[in-house]
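Risk register update: the risk of archive-format incompatibility is retired. Evidence:
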Amino acid sequence: MQAMRKTVLGVTVDGYTLDQAVANARAAIAKRENQCVLACVNPHSVIEAQKDSHFLYALYDAEIKVPDGIGIYLVARLLGLSVPRRITGHDFFIAMMQSLEQQGSGRVAFLGSSPHVLSRIAARLKKDFPRVSLVATISPPFGEWSESKDAEMIESINRAQPDVLWVGMTAPKQEKWVAKNRMFLDVPLIGSIGAVFDYYAGTRQLAPAWVRRSGGEWLYRLAQDPKRLWRRTFVSTPQFVGLVVWRHLLGIGR
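Archived output:
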């Protein structure tokens, strides 16, 4: 199933509905031939990709790129992409897990975050998705780590034989790690979903549904974590808007 795509400042965004994105992911699991990688695109990631060629390639290399941020969604619509709604990493994660649960099978692994968060995820999965098997949880070292550590984590993942590997290391670290190592991972579906680990674990509060639907999630998240998110809100977002106007609306510097 091919989705119409639009390029926003050099980063492509898919026009999948949530059901279509999940169907593509499920097809990759069923066939186990062509690996499928999910990346979530928002204004901050697009701005970061302008100055990080490895991150730009990692976003390009992903098979499914969903419009996670309200800014990306609105700009993609403005440029003619027929996408009915924005799709967050949390949306995709829940929909994919529900699909595996309905099927009555599925093996998932989690790479990222702390042992505490991973233990809370494991406990909640047993209640929410009892028919999905959690086969591995791996908390990587803080900061940078060695190639030998990479090899050790990859070996652990492959030994567990998951259908889905959820990666939560924050952007752009997670996307770059996946792009670098996907060829060594015997996993049909890999999803870089960042803060979803904390949301699902309950260590960070997800915005109410009505806030998410209204597009105000960015403000809710900023109020919760201003120290971490102020830069993407007050620096990256204005840069994103300015570059979109400059390149896409005025056609300058393409």
